[in-house]
Amino acid sequence: MTSSSRVAARHAANRPPHILVVRNDKLGDFMLAWPALACLKAAAPQARISVLVPAYTAPLAELCPWIDAIIVDPGDGAGKQAQRELLARLRSERFCAMLTLYSTPRIGWLGWRAGIPCRVAPATKWAQLFYNHRVVQRRSRSDKPEYLYNVELAEALLAAQGRQPETRPTPPYWPLSPDTVAAQRGSMAETLELDPSRPWLFLHAGSGGSAVNLSSPQYAQLAAAIDTRLAADGVRAHWVLTAGPGEAPAAQALCETLRGTGVQAQVLPPRTSLADFALALSAADLFVAGSTGPLHIAGCLNRPTAGFYPSRRSATALRWQTCNDESRRLAFSPPEGAGESEMSAIDLEAAATAISALVSRRAAETSAS
């Protein structure tokens, strides 16, 4: 080895580890990657963590405290030039390791072609051939939460790098300062004329087409039943209806229905960006939704959640569990014997009882403090 090569090798050895984490699919999937990102940072705080994400989730990646740099993935449908530019970028970053939380042949090929020496992914499908560290998980069995599968992959990468994983981080995986939350609540209280002393219950009835969900009439029935139970306990709540792209008319229609039953409901005005929308969810005292991206944002913020899930094996309440504290998490699915996507079989009265009890308990805890 020449002297210049020895100097280059010494500089490379002294550089902080540079790790690439890939989660380039939907919003909810990306939010469930944050515990794994927190795990990597806890065990290797000096490491530089980059993520490969689609343009859609990049604004949220900007807000993640465990991410140092963002690379936007042009996607499978991008042309050859875009794929060549992405490969060149990966090579130039000189990553020491790559963690792919959801593997596809294109991403595996890119990591291999980029010469990333340590490449970790689930041992699934033929894309695993591009990885030299494969973890058998059998996620299709849905034996564990998705975010825990992701944490286990992060721990496998750390072990492959000769690092001892720290004690697993705990919620919130998206920690915000009290001032940030107070600013969100203050702005919302003024805009929507909400009483800050009352519980604010957020309801997201849309699904973005990504998950089986309750219907709008079911959500109206649920909210009215919760409101009635809370009123009987002396708790008056404000309902804030949120909406994704193209869902505002449906949210407004649901709002009018709720007002017709005496429920105090408002529609959250359109936000300036996905990041702004996500931060607004920190103001919620409870977030109610199907298994959608917004539900998992709320979970990452450690807000109390009530999620509605199908019984389909790949989409169970356990597999797509939110990553908030267990005491802040409720989940409801069709009963055994009902169709796996038969959301009408869910007992909404029982769900309303459980949800109102959670809200009343937390309201009492807040008053006591």
TrEMBL record:
Domain of life, per lineage:
Bacteria
**InterPro entries per record:** Glyco_trans_9, LPS_LOS_Heptosyltrfase
One matching Pfam family is Glyco_transf_9
Keywords assigned by UniProt, alphabetized: Glycosyltransferase, Transferase
What name does the UniProt record give this protein? Glycosyltransferase family 9 protein
Organism, scientific name: Billgrantia desiderata
